[in-house]
Amino acid sequence: MSNAYLRFWGVRGSYSAPFESHLGVGGNTSCVEIRKDNHVLLCDAGTGIIPFGNEILKDPDVEELLIILTHYHWDHICGLPFFVPAFIPNYKISFFGPGDSGADIKSAVSAQMRAPFFPVGTETWLAKIKYMDPPKENEISYGPMGISFQGVHHPGTTFGYRIHVNGKDILYISDNECLFLNKAIRQKYAEFSKEEKELYDAMQQEEYDSELALIKDADILIHDAQYTPEDYRKKRGWGHSCYIDTVNTAIDAGVKELYLYHHDPNYDDDAMKVIEENALGIIEDRNSDLKCHIAKEGLIVEL
Amino acid sequence: MADNNQKTVIVVDDSPSLATLFERAIIDMDILLQIFNKTSEASEYLEDNKPDLIFMNIKMPGKDGLATLKELRNKPLHSDTPVVMISSKDYAQDRSIAKELGAIEFITKPMPIQVIKDALKTHLNF
Hints:
The structure holds two protein chains of two kinds. Chain A is α/β, with parallel strands linked by helices. Chain A contains seven helices and 14 strands. Chain A has a single domain, classed as Metallo-beta-lactamase, Chain A (4-Layer Sandwich), CATH 3.60.15. In chain A, strands 6-5-4-3-2-1-14 form a seven-stranded mixed β-sheet. A seven-stranded mixed β-sheet of chain A has the order 7-8-9-10-11-12-13, with helices on one face. In chain A, α7 (269-285) links the parallel β12 (257-261) and β13 (291-294). In chain A, α6 packs parallel to α7 (269-285). Chain A is globular and about 65 Å long. Chain B is an alpha/beta fold. Chain B has one domain: Response regulator (Rossmann fold), CATH 3.40.50.2300. Chain B starts with 6 loop residues before the first strand and ends with a helix. The model of chain B has no long low-confidence stretch (mean pLDDT 93). The interface between A and B is medium-sized, with 31 and 30 residues.
């Protein structure tokens, strides 16, 4: 392996899916490792962080970790109670995520490890733990990595992250419902006056421009693609994207490589294969150069 | 400069079209309207000013609308300033947080101009 890579440790959304029919894609929930030399960044701490934690114990060069959390829904933090490095004194682990202060992050992370939900709390962690306060500008740095963040469309405050490392921009947007306003406007369009229609046409464009700006020119985009169109129709407004919208938005934004991510736990490997084929079909129909993949557990991408 | 009866309303939203919608909604109302397209600029203004009503969009560049509302509620000057949240998403979790933070109404985009007029009349007692 080279000195810079990213690795998918968990690719499911909502809850883990440890079923034989799903294991080609993987059953653990959100967690992606981005590594440059001895600097290891973890995006989210779903159940995927558990096998990562067991593996990193074998690497004597890594004692410092930064965990950036998109938000605090269970599927993004539920691996932490079983994250072994947190219970070992020589590790230094920093957390960053939404909140007014480091204390807010601590409170969210600790809440799931209180009785009666879990037998031991975060006070039993022996590693040096730091909960980072938000920076003045929306940027933090971590060794050779520059990290910026922005709010995305998901319930509560949820961040999408842009990580600049090894000359590449990686966008990690695990939970985001794209094109929501556009669809809402189209649904109500007939009810609007001529004046309102003009304004909402303009607002639709503003919203789309802002969605494109978020992911513009990404070298690698890891993005929510949880639903098929059939399921999205039933779950619109739940804060997740239909994969077709994710692919089209990535093409429009000039993204180079897209990893469809945060897969619905109900979709087995066969269903994921159909999603991949359809996504590649859209890209071909649009004559785009976008490279598109299904994010799979264990997949390593050299940077 | 506001006259004695004029009400001050601020809108915190980065959409120019939404700003235009508000400008059209306040025609015929004695309202001084101020638009902020960044929550940081709104927060700076609100350090020393207490408007009669605030409309705050949730998804904003930088600090979002819910975090900004929480910050406002921690300041004695704004513990009771009326705030209407605006969002393109009708998420139950957002509604619940907004309610806990004392937002008086939650409006989802796209809304007809009349919805804004009604909110202004209701909350400003016109």
